[in-house]
Amino acid sequence: MGISLQSKLPTVGTTIFSTMSQLAQQHGAINLSQGFPDFDCPPELVELVAEAMRAGHNQYAPSPGLLLLRQKISQKTQQLYGHACDPDLEVTVTSGATEALFAAIAAVVQPGDEVLVLEPCYDSYVPAIELSGGVPVFVPLRFPDFSVDWEKVAESLTPKTRLLIINSPHNPSGAVWKAADLEALTRLSEQHPFLILSDEVYEHMVFDGQPHASVLTVPALAQRAFVVSSFGKTYHTTGWKVGYCIAPAALTVEFRKVHQYLTFSTATPLQHALAHYLDHPEHYLSLPQFYQQKRDLFASLLQPSKFELLPCAGTYFQLARYRQISKAPDVEFAQWLTKEAGVAVIPVSVFYHNAVDNGVIRFCFAKMEETLRAAANRLSRL
């Protein structure tokens, strides 16, 4: 008799990121699809990991994270956002931001609870909601600037709304929240008792002199929010999978209950290295300029092409319309581009639950200059 198995995630297959990276490999394409740098992290950071290993820091770290690292995170948060978080009770180190997002959702979403999701969105949110028995309620961002329609958010709130997931700087669009968005969210939170999950992994990639509008800058929001960040994004170490979550003590208690049975703790030598490297704020303080230069270079290189670039105010992603090149659906066009033009990208429809197709693709420009030049050369021939 065969095994009968009902999937808990029947609509989930291989992620588009894996699919496109695999396709890029098969066809020898330049991979501007998945969001990872093709350059290395600071060499001092590698040396600090090696030192930590040689010093014997190779056993389990405390489940909430190395205390020294949590203290440094707390200091950084205070300096950047004016938010004093208790390193003992309000900061948890996680195995990547995706683990933190999952733990936060699993900690507070009960079966039948509604979770507001602003679309397009990062692909881990909805599966985590569904695995927790929650009901995702989708609110589309305005196209083409991907700004929040606060009237639609207000209309979507019900007595069942448990959590609102927000993301700025925004993946996949590169849109960035303004002070007015925090004000609108604050007004809504005064009228409704929902919690907030703020995905701020691209916090150090905000361009053109704009500040990062962190939820932590507004005390009324910080007291009901999980705020998630990523060392992988900030230090070009996506393969290390180290992130963290800042939340009020009562939320952190529940968050850590889930975290301890997901990963228990995160790689110890990496935590030691990051704790010491946080003494060099010049790295993350110079990151906006570093990535803005890449954004501007890529945009100038694509000027002769038939792609129409959408505004990019943050992250390391650039969206582009391709209607002057093809009328094909975006998934089909992304596959064609990989096979025929030799550049792998991500179709933006995959970030919507109902596959909204605006004829837009996403490039990742977290690449070396020669990679961007080679890709742009191929794209400009189309």
From TrEMBL:
Domain of life: Bacteria
A Pfam entry, by short name: Aminotran_1_2
Organism: Rufibacter glacialis
Cited NCBIfam families: PRK09082.1, PRK12414.1
SUPFAM superfamilies: PLP-dependent transferases
Aminotransferase class I/classII large domain ranges (all copies): 30-379
Gene Ontology MF: a single term: pyridoxal phosphate binding
Cofactor(s) the protein requires to work: pyridoxal 5'-phosphate
Family from the record: Belongs to the class-I pyridoxal-phosphate-dependent aminotransferase family.
InterPro entries, per database record: Aminotransferase_I/II_large, Kynurenine-oxoglutarate_AT, PyrdxlP-dep_Trfase, PyrdxlP-dep_Trfase_major, PyrdxlP-dep_Trfase_small
Presence of the UniProt keyword Transferase in the record: yes
PANTHER family: FI04487P
Protein's UniProt name: Pyridoxal phosphate-dependent aminotransferase
Coiled coil regions in record: none
Keyword annotations from UniProtKB, A to Z: Aminotransferase, Pyridoxal phosphate, Transferase
Record-level GO cellular component terms: cytoplasm
